[in-house]
Amino acid sequence: MKAIYLVRHAHSEANAGNISQPDRLIALSETGRRQADKLACLLPKPASIFCSQLNRTCETAAPYAEKWRQTPQILPELNEFSCLAYEDVAGLDGPQRRPLTDAFWHQADPERRTAASKFTLPDSFAGFSARVAAFRRQAGLLPDQAVCFTHGIWLAMLAWQLLGFESKTSSDMRRFRAWQLNMPMPNAAVFILNISNDGLFALRFASEFCADAA
After folding, report:
1. By C-alpha distance, which of 191, 185, 187 is closest to 148?
2. For strand 190-195 and strand 201-205, is the pairing parallel, antiparallel, or unpaired?
3. Following DSSP, what letter does each residue of 161-182 receive, concatenated?
4. Beta-sheet strands, E only, within the chain
5. What is the C-alpha separation between 150 and 163, in angstroms, rounded?
6. Are 60 and 149 within 8 A, CB to CB?
7. Which of 35, 50, 117, 186 is 20 to 30 Å from 61 by CA-CA measure?
8. Integer-rounded Cα radius of gyration of the chain
9. DSSP letter, residue 28
């Protein structure tokens, strides 16, 4: 049996509803930095540490990596779903971004692709689903006690796939969004992905590692 720890990034400036930044550059808030420091004390010693390509996962991992004197490795399969291009939301705060996000999910085109730019990675819902599926195929190759820092919607998609749900059609996309919005997913949440010797997956929320910053 292998255990992989999956950590949602700590509270970020985007979670606070602040003015948009390029997705890769979004930093942790002050609350998020406290959460990251607490996670460093709560999480067990890692075999390896992995982060997405986005700054907020790297900042969340930093105190933990420093404690154990490890250098996190970048794993693109852990990346967030970027449904809106930075150019479309530049200068907008959280409430102003919300109608654009709602419109994207209402349209529910799995193949709609974010335009590539120096600020935004090209992405689509279909590509995002495939990215999480690619991680599942790689997970068995990760060392036991690996710790991966990723994103809330990514964790929701992993759970969705492990439950056997599809992500191919517009209806699938809408159902996923409704389910994801109702899935408890606090910042700095920790999940444990157990992989049996037969390759079976089991995912659980690890409340014992809760890093809520009071």
Report:
1. 191
2. antiparallel
3. HHTT---SSHHHHHHHHHHHHT
4. 2-8, 49-51, 73-74, 147-150, 190-195, 201-205
5. 20
6. yes
7. 117
8. 17
9. B
- Non-local (6+) Cβ contacts of 128 within 8 A are 81, 153, 157
Contact between 54 and 23 (Cβ < 8 Å): yes
Span 56-98, pLDDT tens digits: 999 999 999 999 999 999 999 999 998 888 888 888 888 999 9
CA distance linking residue 198 with residue 108, whole number of Å:
36
Give the whole-angstrom CA distance, residue 155 versus residue 180.
Answer: 9
φ/ψ of 7, rounded to 5, equals -120, 125
E strand or H helix that includes residue 5: strand 2-8
Buried-state track 137-151, b at ≥16 Cβ within 10 A, e below 16: eebeebeeebbbbbb
The torsion angles phi and psi of 204, rounded to 5 degrees, stand at: -140, 150
- The distance from CA 24 to its chain's CA centroid, rounded to whole angstroms, is 12
Please answer whether residues 91 and 68 qualify as being in contact, where contact means their C-beta atoms are separated by less than 8 angstroms: no
**Gap between the Cα atoms of 140 and 45, Å rounded:** 19
Neighbours of 53 (CB within 10 A): 16
Name residue 192's amino acid: I
Phi, psi of 162 (to 5 degrees): -65, -25
Beta bridge partners of 190: 7
Which band of pLDDT confidence, cut at 50, 70 and 90, is reported for residue 20? Answer: confident
**Angle 170-181/152-162 helices, nearest 10 degrees?**
120
Residue 27 per-residue DSSP state: P
